[in-house]
Amino acid sequence: MERWSGILADGLLTMPITLAVPLDLPDVRVLANRMLEEGTVLIEVESTVRTAQCHRCGRDIDRFHRFDRPIRLRHLPVFGRRVVVEIRPKRYRCPHCEGGPTTTQCCAWYDPNRPHTTAFEQDVLKRLIHGTVADVSRQLHLGVKAVEGLMDQRLAPAVDWTACSTLETLGIDEVALLKGHGHYVAVIWARDADGQNHVLAVLPDRLRATVQAFLATIPDALKATVRRVCMDMWEGYAGAVAAALPNAQIVVDRFHVAVRYREAVDALRQAECRRLNAERTPERAVSTAELRPLLRREWRSLNPDQQGKVVELFEQTPTLASAYVLRTLLTAIFEHSPDRATAQTRLRLWTEQVKTSGLRCFDKFLDTLHHWRNEILNYFDGRHTSGFVEGLNNKLKLLKRRCFGLDDPIELFRRLWLDIEGPRLWA
Predict the structure, then answer these.
(1) What's the chain look like in SS3?
(2) Span 97-119, pLDDT tens digits
(3) Using one digit for the tens of pLDDT, what is the confidence trace for 264-278?
């Protein structure tokens, strides 16, 4: 704690006070302080360290030469007031080097090439976690360009591999940057052995070559820790992983599989409702809007009234009833199969049931199941999913909305890194 005295003005009331405030700067002592005309608190400090490291030979030197020109640095606010720290860096002469060169002392709490203390810059980054540049700009009376420049200086544009210990599970998914424009970026996440999530990359597109090139940059030591990669059924991702991480298991996410077979039943529902309504008066038409959410839910989750509506529909379209039962059976296979071998047997029997039923709505899904069978079955080895990826992608979507359509992949990576890693670094 450093003591400083100053004058706080509130309208016409002005009174001298002495307060104890945390300066939070190591190895300094306060020389003086005063209130500037614009209301900024100016605190003059001096380093208490009496040595420097020679820039030429690297030795510690303690022969004081002179003070350099004073520099002013924006520091953490106090009681809502802007605080500026002024220091005159010490310069020392080296007795070991020819010519006695001088070196300016470097303090750990600021960079002489930046206008802020390190503590202030860190405070800006903390405020940006789940916040916006505009909000931080208003809070600290700091220009938007200054906040953006600080992010450019302090946040790396790409992952720092030295900060990663393991990459046990990778997840790859795409997110649309511009709604309705078809511009997708590939986001690569990781979950380490401790269950911590990390963002590794926001790639400018989802092409195989782009994904493969990034995966190839993973250091060999970290590649060896990758046990599985969870993804949807995108051939580009699978090809990239097979080429760059040949020892990693590819796991097709069960939720993406569910989307495929639920879409099959949904398409049949639409066709059957159109058929029934074509045969009826408008007063007796089937309400597709009402039935759609009911048929997407499991039977046990419906109340008696909802079950009655579904049964009434099934009495009129036994084909849809059969498809609904087969969909329910398939969901049960994914939920209750204890191991890979059991799941494989049950999927084979389910496929035979579909073929015996004569239903054609599952034809496209059966092709998918055949093509991706091994990757789908890999799910049952440990029941790993990309659910954590979907959750993190929701963070990305919230970030985009919060930042009014942030669409630059590098900036997206920086802001995601800040939201994910920041709370762990500065909790």
Answers:
(1) CEEEEEEEEECCEEEEEEEEECCCCCCEEEEEEEECCCCCEEEEEEECCCCEECCCCCCEECEEEEECCCEEEEEEEECCEEEEEEECCEEEECCCCCCCCEEECCCCCECCCCCEEHHHHHHHHHHHCCCCHHHHHHHHCCCHHHHHHHHHHHCCCCCCHHHCCCCCEEEEEEEEEECCCCEEEEEEEEECCCCCEEEEEEECCCCHHHHHHHHHCCCHHHHCCCCEEEECCCHHHHHHHHHHCCCCEEEECHHHHHHHHHHHHHHHHHHHHHHHHHCCCHHHCCCHHHHHHHHHCCHHHCCHHHHHHHHHHHHHCHHHHHHHHHHHHHHHHHHHCCCHHHHHHHHHHHHHHHHHHCCCCCHHHHHHHHHCHHHHHCHHHHCCCCHHHHHHHHHHHHHHHHCCCCCCHHHHHHHHHHHHHHHHHCC
(2) 999 999 999 999 999 999 999 99
(3) 999 999 998 888 888
Q: What is the pLDDT of residues 163-176, one digit of tens each?
A: 899 999 999 988 88
Instruction: Tell me the average pLDDT across 390-396.
Output: 75
| Contact of 191 with 388, CB cutoff 8 Å | yes
Task: Check: CB of residue 44 under 8 Å from CB of residue 86.
Answer: yes
d(CA 90, CA 50): 9
The whole-number pLDDT of residue 14 equals 42
β-strands 71-78, 249-252: how paired?
A: unpaired
- For 233, the token pair is 């059924």
Cα 400 versus chain centre, distance: 11
pLDDT digits (tens, 9 = 90+) for 77-89: 988 889 999 999 9
| Nearest in space to 378 (alpha carbons), one of 252, 288, 285 | 252
Stated pTM of the model: 0.82
